[in-house]
Structure formats: C-alpha cells, structure tokens
Design brief:
Length: 235
C-alpha cells in the first residue's frame, strides 16, 4: 500500500475526530495517557517556557505541557485537522483558567511552521511523526524553530523486536482495533495504522534521521513491551 497523501491523512483525522479520544482510551485500556506522561518526563518542560506540541490533534499532550509551563509559559498546539483542533479547543474550556491562558491552537502544516528560527524552548510530538508526509522535513523544521539546548519528546508506535510481541501487536491491530472501528464505519481509517507502522523507521533509524536534521543528542526508548517508543532529542 503506497503512502497516503497529506490530504488523505488530513481527511482520516477529520473523519475519526468524533471517536478519536474514546477509541484511544478503549483500545489502549487508558495506557496511552501513561505513555504520554512518560514522554513528557523525558523532555521536562519548565514553568514560564514557550513550547510547541506538533500534530497536537485533540490536545492531550498540549494540555500536559501547559500544566508544566503554567502560569507564565505558553504552549502552541499545531495540527492541520480542523476537526481535531475543534475538539481540543472544546476540551480546553473545561481546564482551569490558569491552564487555558497558556494554550494556543493553530491550524497548520508542521512541515511548514509559521514561526521564526530559535523561537521555542522545547517541543512534543505524540503519534505524529509516523503520519507526516516527510519525516526528514518535519525534524528539520522542528530543529529550526527550537533554541539551542531545547529538548523534544517524540512518542509513537514501534515494532517490537520480540517475535511474540510482534505477533501480538499484529493480532491486536488487525483483529481488535480494525473490527471495532468497522462497527463505527471507520474501518479504512484504523486499517491505516498497521501499514503506517510497517513503513515507520525503527528506533535506531529515527535516531539517525534526527542527527541528520541537526539534533546533537538523540536516543530512542522502547516502551510498552516494544509496541511504543519515545525518541528523545536535544538541539
Ligand atoms: C494514542 C494511540 C494512538 C493514536 C493514533 C495514532 C494514529 O496514527 C492513528 C491513525 C489512524 C487512526 C487512529 C490513530 C490513532 O488513534 C495509541 C493507543 C490507541 C491504539 C489504536 C491502540 C493500539 C495499542 C497497541 C497496539 C496494543 C496495546 C495493548 C493493550 C494495552 C492491551
Ligand atoms: C494520531 S494523531 C495524534 C494526536 C495527538 N498528538 C495525540 O497524541 O493524540 C496524529 C495527528 O497528526 C496530524 N498531522 C499529520 N500530519 C500533519 C501535518 N503535516 N501537519 C499538521 N498536522 C499533521 C493529524 O491531523 C492528527 O491530528
């Protein structure tokens, strides 16, 4: 299966927006919230800093960063899905005013960020790198807008090295995730995950791509029995 176009990807996420959060909670048994908090611990946003959450979607990671940089800091969530950004903004209405004041939602393409060089103290990218049209361009653009010394946490799926876990991951995606999506007429949207994961560089290759983009430090940590991974970068 060839890689979907940017328009295809945008449409996938606009279509799944109404069920996105619920499916993530249900299909990961809530674990995705723990994985996001693990990623945050690796990049350590500090109070008062200015951060980016790229491919922010429904804003889970953006809100976690806001809790760390509040009350004087800022985090900008960037995504090209209008529908998921709308859900992010709606969810934010329930946050404290202290957190809301730190949050900005911006529709845009992370491959063409509308920010000056060296503008941010750090960034997060949760379940986005695998979905962008060009991983090198995404990493290069991210490097450009970060200040020296900035940290980044990139959370995404990962292919386990263990054959048994690989088989479990394949089974779960094909025989649990897709059939559930099928009941909500979102078969194709969730069937996209497995081939996108098959195309996705393994941790060591992600490290090479990050260093090629200019990051001084890059290390990949497999979590969730190797089914997820966190790429930790520093400029
Ligand atoms: C938050 C998670 C996935 C986000 C996500 C990423 C994508 O690229 C998508 C593309 C198309 C449709 C949806 C998504 C999408 O939701 C991770 C949790 C949700 C996963 C769908 C569940 C799969 C988890 C592991 C393969 C197995 C977990 C085992 C379980 C804890 C027993
Ligand atoms: C799986 S969702 C991740 C959302 C959120 N970070 C999370 O952890 O739940 C992937 C997101 O990446 C966005 N995306 C993919 N390619 C993009 C691009 N080139 N520019 C902006 N957003 C993009 C999609 O619209 C979608 O919201």
């Amino acid at each position: 299966m060839s890689q979907p176009s940017e328009t295809d990807i945008q449409q996938i996420f606009d279509r799944i927006a109404p069920v996105y959060d619920r499916f993530n909670d249900l299909l990961s048994l809530g674990q995705h919230r723990i994985w996001k908090k693990m990623a945050l611990r690796w990049c350590e946003p500090q109070q008062g800093e200015k951060w980016l959450d790229l491919c922010c979607g429904s804003g889970d990671m953006t809100a976690l960063v806001a809790q760390k940089v509040a009350p004087t800091g800022q985090v900008i969530g960037v995504d090209f899905s209008k529908e998921l950004l709308a859900i992010a903004a709606d969810k934010a209405k329930n946050y404290s005013s202290k957190i809301q004041k730190c949050l900005t939602w911006q529709q845009g393409n992370v491959l063409h960020l509308p920010f000056e060089d060296n503008s941010f103290n750090g960034a997060t990218l949760a379940y986005g790198l695998r979905n962008v049209a060009s991983i090198p361009q995404c990493l290069s653009e991210l490097h450009r807008v970060l200040q020296n010394g900035s940290k980044v946490a990139v959370l995404d799926f990962h292919r386990p090295s263990d054959r048994l876990m690989q088989s479990f991951q394949d089974f779960y995606l094909d025989r649990v995730v897709v059939p559930l999506a099928d009941r909500f007429e979102m078969t194709d949207e969730y069937a996209y995950i497995a081939p996108s994961l098959a195309r996705f560089p393994i941790g060591s290759e992600q490290v090479k791509l990050a260093k090629a983009a200019g990051f001084n430090q890059a290390k990949h940590y497999a979590i969730a029995n190797g089914m997820m991974g966190i790429l930790v970068l520093q400029k």
